[in-house]
Amino acid sequence: MAKRLVFEATPMRRLSAFIIDMIILWFVVGVPFSSLFESLAPSRMMVITQESLATFKIQFVSLVLFLFFFLYFTILEYYLGQTPGKMITKTVQEHNGFLSCVMANLFLIPIFPFIILWFIDPIAIVLKNKTLSNILSKTRLLHVDKEIKIFDNLDIGDVNG
Predict the structure, then answer these.
(1) Residue 14 burial (CB count, 10 A)
(2) What is the pLDDT of residues 81-90, one digit of tens each?
(3) pLDDT by residue (tens digit) across 11-42?
(4) 43: closest CA among 58, 54, 57, 59?
(5) What are the two backbone dihedrals, phi and then psi, of residue 148, each rounded to the nearest 5 degrees?
């Protein structure tokens, strides 16, 4: 019979999974949108009203990007229990339904009060090995180690010879 060893994910494993996901998102979403950001950026010759309109557009596109990031993490964690970064680092998100996945990823929305989690979550990881988001959403990030063989009825035989 084979069983898997399961542990709370370490801060380094958490960070590695997040960085891998951010790299994936950068290539899938960031690179295609970079030309849009460049075209929206105000030039030195713009009139003030045009500049404020450009700033509004940049903020709107940024919010849409962050919403995409939020949905990426929330939907993958709900349906698969993992994002590609978590698959690579052998971690899995244990959750209690879709709402708990939403709550665990609210830190990705760059709006007050969720921005506060950008500062609180790293401190919570160091102190409790859990983010405040995980604590409030009652989710856990687990490291699933390789399978080990466990023999229930191991008959060694006569050891005396």
Answers:
(1) 24
(2) 889 999 998 8
(3) 888 889 989 998 998 888 777 777 766 665 55
(4) 54
(5) -120, 150
